[in-house]
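A reminder from the course coordinator: this example appears on the midterm review sheet, so study it carefully.

Given structure:
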C-alpha cells in the first residue's frame, strides 16, 4: 500500500509540473502553441488557448500544493475530455499539414488522458483507506490504515530531529498523553482512550534514515497493536519539507474494537490531519494557534467530538460554556 501511495504522489507531482509547463507556454507564447498544434488563427482560437493555459495553471497549483490529489487528478481528466472534444471538432474541418499536426496532438492528449485517468483512480482508492467504511469494517476486527500529508516550512533535518525526539509527539498528537524514551530505539507510550481510561504500550523503532524516515511498531502484548511510518521529503521550493505519515492499527473484534471505533469517531482521517496541522504550527510558529477558551487534549475530544461539517449542538455549546 505504501508503494502505491508513493507512486500516486510522484505521478501527481509529475502531472502538476506538466500542467505548469503547459500553462506557462500557452499564456506566454499562444501563437507558437497554435502553430505547433495545427490550430487555426481565428478569434476563437486566440481566446481559447490562453484560457486553457490558465486552466492548466490551476491544475498545477492543485496537484503541487493540495493534499487532495484525487480531486485535482479528476479535474485534469475533465479538462482532457474538453480538449479531445475540441480537437475532434477541429479535425473534422482540417486538411493537409494542419490535419497531420492535429492528429499528432490528439494522440498525445489521448496518452495523457490515460495517465490522468489512471492517476485519478489510484488516488481515489488510496484516499478511501481509513474512510468511514474502512472504520466500520474495523469494528469487526481487522487492520485500519490512516494516511496524511502536510508541508512544513522547515528543512527536513529539523523536522526529522523534532519527530525523532519521541517525547515531542504528545505536543501535537491529541490522543497521546505521554511518550517516554526507554532506550535509543525503544519507548513507552500512553494514550487517552474512551470512557476516561488510558492505554499503554511499548514500541521500538524498526527502521530509520536520519533526515528521511522513521518507522516504528508496538511490541509485546499491546491491546491494539499498531505501527507507523513517517517520511520527510524535501519540497520543490527547496526550503520546505513534505511530511508523509502512515499509521496502521490492528484492531481486534468485540468490545475493544467497538471502543476504538468510538474513539476515532466518524472521520478518522481528520484526526490525523489535525495532528499534522498542529505539528506544522509548532514548528513554524513555536505554538499551536487556537482561539481563547478553546478546550484542549482529552477535554476537547470529550466535549467537542469531531464530525464532518456539522455545527455544535446547543447542548454541546452549553456544556463547553459551563466547563
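Designed residues:
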Amino acid at each position: 500500500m505504501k508503494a502505491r501511495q508513493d507512486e500516486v504522489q510522484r505521478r501527481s507531482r509529475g502531472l502538476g509540473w506538466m500542467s505548469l509547463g503547459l500553462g506557462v507556454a500557452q499564456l506566454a507564447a499562444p501563437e507558437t502553441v497554435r502553430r505547433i498544434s495545427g490550430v487555426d488563427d481565428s478569434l476563437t482560437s486566440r481566446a481559447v488557448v490562453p484560457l486553457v493555459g490558465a486552466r492548466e495553471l490551476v491544475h498545477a497549483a492543485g496537484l503541487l500544493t493540495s493534499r487532495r490529489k484525487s480531486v485535482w487528478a479528476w479535474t485534469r481528466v475533465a479538462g482532457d475530455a474538453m480538449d479531445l472534444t475540441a480537437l475532434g471538432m477541429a479535425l473534422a474541418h482540417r486538411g493537409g499539414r494542419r490535419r497531420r499536426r492535429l492528429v499528432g496532438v490528439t494522440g498525445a492528449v489521448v496518452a495523457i488522458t490515460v495517465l490522468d485517468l489512471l492517476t485519478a483512480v489510484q488516488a481515489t482508492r488510496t484516499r478511501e483507506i481509513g474512510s468511514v467504511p474502512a472504520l466500520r469494517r474495523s469494528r469487526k476486527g481487522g487492520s485500519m490504515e490512516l494516511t496524511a500529508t502536510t508541508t512544513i516550512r522547515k528543512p527536513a533535518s529539523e523536522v526529522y530531529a523534532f519527530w525523532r525526539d519521541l517525547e515531542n509527539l504528545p505536543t501535537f498528537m491529541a490522543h497521546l498523553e505521554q511518550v517516554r524514551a526507554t532506550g535509543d530505539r525503544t519507548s513507552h507510550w500512553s494514550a487517552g482512550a474512551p470512557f476516561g481510561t488510558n492505554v499503554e504500550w511499548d514500541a521500538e523503532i524498526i527502521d530509520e534514515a536520519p533526515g528521511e524516515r522513521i518507522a516504528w511498531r508496538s511490541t509485546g502484548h499491546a491491546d491494539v497493536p499498531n505501527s507507523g511510518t513517517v517520511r520527510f521529503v524535501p519540497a520543490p521550493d527547496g526550503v520546505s519539507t513534505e511530511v508523509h505519515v502512515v499509521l496502521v492499527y490492528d484492531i481486534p473484534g468485540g468490545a475493544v474494537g467497538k471502543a476504538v471505533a468510538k474513539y476515532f469517531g466518524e472521520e478518522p482521517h481528520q484526526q490525523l490531519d489535525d495532528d499534522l496541522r498542529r505539528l506544522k504550527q509548532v514548528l513554524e510558529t513555536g505554538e499551536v494557534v487556537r482561539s481563547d477558551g478553546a478546550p484542549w487534549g482529552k477535554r476537547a475530544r470529550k466535549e467537542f467530538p469531531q464530525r464532518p461539517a456539522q455545527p455544535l449542538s446547543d447542548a454541546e455549546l452549553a456544556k463547553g460554556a459551563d466547563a
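The two ends are 43 Å apart (CA to CA). The first strand starts at residue 142 and ends at 152.
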